[in-house]
Amino acid sequence: MADPCLKIVLVAPEIPYNTGAIGRTCVALNLELILIRPYGFSLDEKSVRRAGTDYWKHVNLSEYDSWEHFLEVRQPAEDSLYFFEEHGARSVYDPEYKPDGYLIFGNESRGLTPEVLEGHDDRIFNLPMLSPLVRSLNLANTATAVIYQAMRPQLGG
To answer: pTM of the predicted model, to two decimals?
Structure first.
Protein backbone atom coordinates (compact mmCIF):
# COMPACT_ATOMS: atom_id res chain seq x y z
CA MET A 1 0.00 0.00 0.00
CA ALA A 2 1.28 3.47 -0.89
CA ASP A 3 2.12 6.06 1.76
CA PRO A 4 -0.63 8.58 2.55
CA CYS A 5 -0.65 11.36 0.01
CA LEU A 6 -1.81 14.91 0.52
CA LYS A 7 -4.19 16.04 -2.20
CA ILE A 8 -4.46 19.53 -3.66
CA VAL A 9 -7.92 20.34 -5.01
CA LEU A 10 -8.51 23.27 -7.37
CA VAL A 11 -12.19 24.01 -7.90
CA ALA A 12 -12.86 25.65 -11.28
CA PRO A 13 -9.37 27.13 -11.77
CA GLU A 14 -9.25 30.04 -14.23
CA ILE A 15 -5.59 30.88 -14.82
CA PRO A 16 -3.43 28.25 -16.49
CA TYR A 17 -0.19 29.59 -15.01
CA ASN A 18 -1.43 29.01 -11.46
CA THR A 19 -2.52 25.46 -12.23
CA GLY A 20 0.81 24.72 -13.89
CA ALA A 21 2.80 26.17 -10.99
CA ILE A 22 0.74 24.24 -8.43
CA GLY A 23 1.22 21.08 -10.50
CA ARG A 24 4.97 21.62 -10.38
CA THR A 25 4.81 21.93 -6.58
CA CYS A 26 2.79 18.70 -6.47
CA VAL A 27 5.47 16.88 -8.46
CA ALA A 28 8.20 18.24 -6.18
CA LEU A 29 6.41 16.93 -3.08
CA ASN A 30 4.77 13.75 -4.47
CA LEU A 31 1.23 15.10 -4.08
CA GLU A 32 -1.91 14.43 -6.07
CA LEU A 33 -3.46 17.35 -7.96
CA ILE A 34 -7.24 17.18 -8.30
CA LEU A 35 -8.93 19.55 -10.76
CA ILE A 36 -12.66 20.13 -10.71
CA ARG A 37 -14.36 21.49 -13.83
CA PRO A 38 -15.14 23.89 -15.32
CA TYR A 39 -11.69 25.26 -16.13
CA GLY A 40 -11.02 28.70 -17.55
CA PHE A 41 -8.50 27.16 -19.97
CA SER A 42 -7.54 23.92 -21.68
CA LEU A 43 -5.01 21.63 -20.00
CA ASP A 44 -3.34 21.44 -23.41
CA GLU A 45 -2.50 25.15 -23.35
CA LYS A 46 1.16 26.03 -23.59
CA SER A 47 0.86 28.26 -20.53
CA VAL A 48 -0.04 25.30 -18.28
CA ARG A 49 2.91 23.35 -19.60
CA ARG A 50 5.19 26.40 -19.42
CA ALA A 51 4.38 27.03 -15.74
CA GLY A 52 4.84 23.35 -14.97
CA THR A 53 7.82 23.29 -17.34
CA ASP A 54 8.84 19.76 -18.23
CA TYR A 55 7.34 18.50 -14.95
CA TRP A 56 3.69 18.63 -16.06
CA LYS A 57 3.87 15.13 -17.58
CA HIS A 58 4.73 13.83 -14.08
CA VAL A 59 1.76 15.40 -12.28
CA ASN A 60 -0.39 12.82 -10.48
CA LEU A 61 -3.58 14.34 -11.91
CA SER A 62 -7.23 13.48 -11.31
CA GLU A 63 -10.15 15.35 -12.84
CA TYR A 64 -13.82 15.58 -11.89
CA ASP A 65 -16.77 17.14 -13.69
CA SER A 66 -18.15 18.89 -10.60
CA TRP A 67 -17.79 19.24 -6.83
CA GLU A 68 -20.65 16.76 -6.42
CA HIS A 69 -18.92 14.27 -8.71
CA PHE A 70 -15.71 14.61 -6.67
CA LEU A 71 -17.60 13.98 -3.40
CA GLU A 72 -19.46 11.02 -4.88
CA VAL A 73 -16.32 9.30 -6.17
CA ARG A 74 -13.83 10.17 -3.42
CA GLN A 75 -16.17 10.17 -0.41
CA PRO A 76 -13.67 12.12 1.72
CA ALA A 77 -14.02 12.12 5.49
CA GLU A 78 -15.11 15.52 6.84
CA ASP A 79 -12.02 15.81 9.02
CA SER A 80 -9.76 15.36 5.98
CA LEU A 81 -11.15 18.45 4.21
CA TYR A 82 -9.39 21.82 4.55
CA PHE A 83 -10.92 24.78 2.70
CA PHE A 84 -8.92 27.95 2.08
CA GLU A 85 -10.56 31.34 1.71
CA GLU A 86 -9.34 34.85 2.40
CA HIS A 87 -12.14 35.28 4.96
CA GLY A 88 -11.72 31.95 6.72
CA ALA A 89 -12.29 32.20 10.47
CA ARG A 90 -9.17 30.18 11.35
CA SER A 91 -5.53 30.44 10.32
CA VAL A 92 -3.68 27.89 8.20
CA TYR A 93 -1.48 27.43 11.28
CA ASP A 94 -4.36 26.09 13.42
CA PRO A 95 -5.12 22.57 12.17
CA GLU A 96 -3.12 19.42 12.53
CA TYR A 97 -3.24 18.32 8.91
CA LYS A 98 -3.88 14.69 8.04
CA PRO A 99 -1.15 13.33 5.75
CA ASP A 100 -3.84 12.14 3.33
CA GLY A 101 -6.01 15.26 3.61
CA TYR A 102 -7.50 17.43 0.88
CA LEU A 103 -6.34 21.06 0.64
CA ILE A 104 -9.14 22.78 -1.28
CA PHE A 105 -8.79 26.09 -3.13
CA GLY A 106 -11.31 28.03 -5.21
CA ASN A 107 -10.73 29.91 -8.40
CA GLU A 108 -8.83 33.13 -8.74
CA SER A 109 -11.72 35.57 -9.15
CA ARG A 110 -14.40 34.23 -6.80
CA GLY A 111 -12.79 31.69 -4.50
CA LEU A 112 -14.91 28.79 -3.30
CA THR A 113 -18.65 28.94 -3.87
CA PRO A 114 -21.16 28.92 -1.00
CA GLU A 115 -22.31 25.48 -2.22
CA VAL A 116 -18.82 24.03 -1.75
CA LEU A 117 -18.35 25.70 1.64
CA GLU A 118 -21.83 24.87 2.96
CA GLY A 119 -21.71 22.92 6.21
CA HIS A 120 -17.93 23.25 6.57
CA ASP A 121 -17.69 26.47 8.61
CA ASP A 122 -15.22 24.97 11.08
CA ARG A 123 -12.99 23.73 8.23
CA ILE A 124 -12.38 27.10 6.47
CA PHE A 125 -8.90 28.59 6.90
CA ASN A 126 -7.11 31.74 5.82
CA LEU A 127 -3.52 32.69 5.12
CA PRO A 128 -2.87 35.68 7.41
CA MET A 129 -2.07 39.03 5.80
CA LEU A 130 -0.33 41.64 7.95
CA SER A 131 -0.97 44.59 5.64
CA PRO A 132 -4.48 45.91 5.02
CA LEU A 133 -3.30 46.84 1.52
CA VAL A 134 -3.35 43.19 0.37
CA ARG A 135 -6.51 41.04 0.45
CA SER A 136 -4.88 37.85 -0.75
CA LEU A 137 -1.93 36.40 -2.60
CA ASN A 138 -1.80 34.80 -6.01
CA LEU A 139 -3.39 31.33 -5.93
CA ALA A 140 -0.15 29.50 -6.72
CA ASN A 141 1.70 31.38 -3.95
CA THR A 142 -1.08 30.75 -1.44
CA ALA A 143 -1.32 27.06 -2.30
CA THR A 144 2.44 26.61 -1.97
CA ALA A 145 2.53 28.34 1.42
CA VAL A 146 -0.36 26.19 2.66
CA ILE A 147 1.13 22.98 1.27
CA TYR A 148 4.43 23.50 3.05
CA GLN A 149 2.64 24.31 6.31
CA ALA A 150 0.48 21.19 6.01
CA MET A 151 3.55 19.05 5.29
CA ARG A 152 5.76 20.37 8.10
CA PRO A 153 5.69 17.06 10.02
CA GLN A 154 6.70 15.04 6.92
CA LEU A 155 9.37 17.58 5.94
CA GLY A 156 11.00 17.67 9.34
CA GLY A 157 9.62 21.04 10.43
So the answer is: 0.94
